[in-house]
Amino acid sequence: MAVTNISFRLATFFLLLHSAVAQCWKNTTCSGPTDTAFPGPWEANIFAPASRTVSPASILSASGELISKFQGTAQLSGNGSGLVFDFGIEVGGLITLEYTATGLGSVGLAFTESKNWIGEWSDSSNGGFKGPDGAIYSVFNGSGTYSYTMPDVRLRGGFRYLTLFLVTNGTSTVDIKDIKLDIGFQPTWANLKAYQGYFHSSDELLNRIWYSGAYTLQTNAVPVNTGRQVPFVVTGWANNGTLGPGDTIIVDGAKRDRAVWPGDMGIAVPSTFVSIGDLTSVKNALQVMYNYQNPTTGAFPEAGPPLLQLGSDTYHMWTMIGTYNYLLYSNDTAFLSENWAKYLLAMNYIYDKVGSSGLLNVTGLRDWARWQTGFNGSEPNMILYRTLITGADLSIWAGDTTDLNATWHGRAASLKSAINEYCWDTSYGAFKDNATATTLHPQDANSMSILFDAVNTTARAEDISSNLLKNWSPIGAVSPELPGNISPFISSFEIQAHFTIGQTERALDLIRRSWGWYINNPLGSESTVIEGYLENGTFGYRSTRGYDYDASYVSHSHGWSSGPTSALTTFILGLSVTSPAGGAWKLAPQFGDLKSAEGGFTTSLGKFQAAWTLKNDGYSLTYHVPQGTAGEIVLPGLSSGKVPSITLDGRTLQQETQSQLAGDSVVLNGAGGNHIIVVS
C-alpha cells in the first residue's frame, strides 16, 4: 500500500508538472517560479489570473452597459449586431472563438483597453498617426460549427474589452459557444500569481495601487518575438518583431510600443524587483542595449529593436543606471564582466560632453515626452550625476584596479557643484530647466535632484519639495515641462523625492491623488497603471503638445508609471538592499498616516521580510533577513518627545539610545536572522 501511494503521488506530481509546463507561452521554457514566495491574505490583491487561459467576466451592450455575467455563451443576430466582452482586468494574448453560424458572413473582433473606445474599431496601437487598427475577422461560409484562433502576428498585447460584431448581407445568426484567451505575457511563468515579493498595509487603496504596478510589469514582460512590427503597418496591427535575446524581455507597454526603453526601466526595474521578481526579463532587455551599442562612439540606442531609435543622451545614461540596478538586485557578476568594456566606452562617450562650465552639454536630444531638451538641461545633468555615482559602485563590483571609483566620485562632486551654481534659482527655490535664463522649473529635474542627492543643502531640498506642490491638481501633478499633462512616470520620481527627505504625507497624498484616481476610474483598466493623462481627466496624453496621436493610442499598462510599487516597499515598509543581492540592506520605515505595513522580496541569498505596527505609545518592528547579511536599521523618533523604552529581541537598549529616539531617529546595526524591536 505504501508503494502504491508513493507511486500515485509521483504520478500526480508529474501530471501537474506536465500541465504547468504545457501552460507556458508556446515554445518557451517554463523557467519561472512555481509558487509565491510569501503566501498570505495579501494574495487576494494580485490581479494576475490563476490560469494562463482565461474567459471574459461579463457581457456589456454596445454602449457599454452591463448585461450579465459571461456564462460561456452569447448570440449575435443580424448585420451590425454586437456585444462587448469585459475581462474585468487588463489582459493580452490570442483569442480562440468557438461558435456555430447560419448563412454567410464574418464575426469581427475589436479590442480596447479603455471603455471609451469600445466598438467595431480597436483602439490605436500601430503608431497612432497611421491608419486605424480596425478589427480582425473570422469568416463563416454556411451553417456549421467554427473554431477561430487569432494568428500569432495579430497578438493583442493589452486590452480589457473585446467587441464581437456580426457582418452579413442576410439574416445570419452566430451562437457563441466559448471565448478563451491564451495569455501572452510573462511567457516563462506557468503560475502568473507566483510573486516573489509582496506588500500589505492598513490602507487598502495603497495595497491595490502597489499590486496594479506589479501586474502592469507582468503585462510588460513579453515573448521576444512579439514586438511591434517596424515599419509600422498602415492599418491593422502586427506584433511579430524580434526584441532581443532569451524567451522573455521587459518592454515599455503591453499594447504598445512593445520595445525596450531604458528610461522606462529606471522606474520599472526597481518595482519589478520588489514585486514579481522577474530579473530575467530585465537582463535580456539590458543585454539588447549592449548588443546594439555603437562600437565606435559607445552610444547606446534610445530604444531596442525593432524600433531601434537613436540619439538620446538621457536614455543612454538610463542604460548605465539600469546596469547598476540589475547588479544590485541580482549580483550577476558574469553579466557585468561580459559587458564591462562596453560600459567603460559608454561612460567615456557621455562624459566627453561635459564642457568647461562643468555641466553636461546635451546633443542627443531625444528624451521622454518633455517638450524642451538640449544644451545644459538640468534634468540630464541630474541623470549624469546618478550615472557617475552608480558607476563608481559598479567599478568596485567589477573588480576594477585603476581607481575609477575615486575618479568618478570626483567627477560627480564637480558636477554637483556646477549644477547648484548654474541651475539653481534662488528667487524661486528650485532648479531651472537649464543653465540659461528661464522661468521653467521642471518636475523631472527637481524631483531627481532630491532622489539622486544632487541638491547641495537640506534647506534647498525642502524648498524644492514645497514648490513641487504648486504643480498639483486634484488628480495629480501637472508637469511644467509637458504643460497640461500628468506624467505618472515623472511623478514616480517626485513621490520618491518627498519620501527621501521624510515628507511622507506629501508622497502618500500624491500617490492617492494620481494613481488612486486612475485605479478607481471606471473608464480605465482598473488593474494597471496608465502611461499618462491630461489634467482635465481625459486620456489624451501628449495631445496638447502637437503630437498627431489618437487619444486611444495612450497605453493603459505602462511600466514607467509603476513607481509607487517600489516606493511603498522602499520607504513605507522601509526595506531595501544596498549591496548586490542584499549582502547589505537597510530598514528605515516611514509611518505617515498608516497604522501598519508589511512586505518582502527575494534575492539569490533568500527572503527579506519586515513588518511594523503602531501602538498607542510606540510601535513594534520585526524583520527576517538571510543569515550572514548585515544592515542599517533607522528607528523613527516618537512625535511625543518622551523617552521611550527600546528592546531588541527582549534586551533593553542603553539609555543613551533611548534618549536620542525621544527627539530624533536612531540608527542601529542589524544582523541576519529573525528579530523584533519594540519601542514603547
UniProtKB/TrEMBL annotation:
Residues 578-641 form the Alpha-L-rhamnosidase C-terminal domain. Residues 1-22 form the signal peptide. It comes from the Eukaryota. Pfam families: Bac_rhamnosid6H (PF17389), Bac_rhamnosid_C (PF17390). The keyword Hydrolase applies. The lineage of its organism: Eukaryota, Fungi, Dikarya, Ascomycota, Pezizomycotina. SUPFAM superfamilies: Six-hairpin glycosidases. This is Glycoside hydrolase family 78 protein. Gene3D superfamilies: 1.50.10.10, Maltose phosphorylase, domain 3. GO terms for biological process: carbohydrate metabolic process. One of its GO terms (molecular function) is hydrolase activity. InterPro entries: 6-hairpin_glycosidase_sf (IPR008928), 6hp_glycosidase-like_sf (IPR012341), Bac_rhamnosid6H (IPR035396), Bac_rhamnosid_C (IPR035398). Keywords: Hydrolase, Signal. Residues 249-471 form the Alpha-L-rhamnosidase six-hairpin glycosidase domain.
